[in-house]
Amino acid sequence: xxxxxITCHDVYNHGASLQAYGLMKYLKNCGHDVEIIDYKPDYxxxxxxxxxxxxxxxxKNLVTKCxxxxxxxxxxxxxxxxKRAFDKFKSNFLHITDTRYKSNExxxxxxxxxxxxxxxxxxxxxxxxxxxKDPAFYLDFVPDEKIKASYAASxxxxxxxxxxxxxxKQRVEKLDAVGVRExxxxxxxxxxxxxxxxxxVDPVFLLDKNDWNQICTKEFQEKYILIYDFDNSSLIxxxxxxxxxxxxxxxxxxxxxxxxxxxxxxxxxxxxxxxxLVRNAQFVISNSFHAAVFSVLYERSFVIVNRNEAIxxxxxxxxxxxxxxxxxxxxxxxxxxxxxxxxxxxxKRLLNExxxxxKKYLQDVLSIQK
Length: 370
Description:
Layout: E1 2-6, H1 14-29, E2 33-39, H2 42-45, H3 62-93, E3 96-101, H4 104-109, E4 116-119, E5 147-150, H5 165-173, E6 178-180, H6 183-191, E7 197-199, H7 209-213, E8 224-228, H8 234-247, E9 250-253, E10 264-265, H9 271-280, E11 283-286, H10 289-297, E12 302-305, H11 313-321, E13 328-329, H12 335-338, H13 345-365
Parallel strand pairs: 1-2, 1-4, 2-3, 4-5, 6-7, 8-9, 8-11, 9-10, 11-12, 12-13
């Protein structure tokens, strides 16, 4: 069967790239012909634009624009190396449509051929961002005679604002099947009187360690703590330094920004290196959902630090579902408890059952007769 998926696959984020690969690769392993729709609206395409002014207050006049750009352009030129690493991953591992689409209307005019279309995974329905309001991520462009469903779509929050509820309800109701990643997503849809939602696992979990080891081949000789920090968190820094002192581990950082306390930086490396770093780490400290996912997959010692409560739902639901909620911490942590090895037996049993049901969901979706 020809299957097209649509997700935020090309936003220079490790988790986004890897979840796109996970779903594509699993469906290919099942014998399907799979393409990821190269959907790049302007709001997802501007990250590495040298001349982008992210804050409107700097657009007041030519002087402020020049000052802003003089500060930002050197950093952006350096980050182009990171872009090249992600572009290489996309070229090597993601099967992308030949045509790039920039709007839902483009997709309607020249819809890529498939027998079935899947939207997901990741935060495609996060209404705090433009993608959550974009009809393309609800498969609005797909003809009704085709199979259309979501897989592991995420709202990333516990609630969506009242102004977006009617349009979300209207769009999701048109799908033949609904798979969301978090139990909070099921609850959101239930409140909209959509009762057909299934909770499924992140597509990273559809592949096992052997599958992921095929794309991540780097090895590291030192024992290290891996930091993946979106927020320059003082709490992550504090925990990392304490564990490094206690255990004698080095500190490795993988993110676009440099952390001064890290011993090594992997700021311009692609998703393959990220997976290798998690796989080989003695301890992972992060505020990233996919850092948690890969830590569980490779059975690493890890903690996830609370972020903004509005977007903390993803980590909370994942860890709660796997009976690992003690790995989501705040400033009231106990270092001795953090260093106790995680007993993964129960978590893996729960996860394996969720993976089985998720694979059955996909099998059922792709068997729909229309």
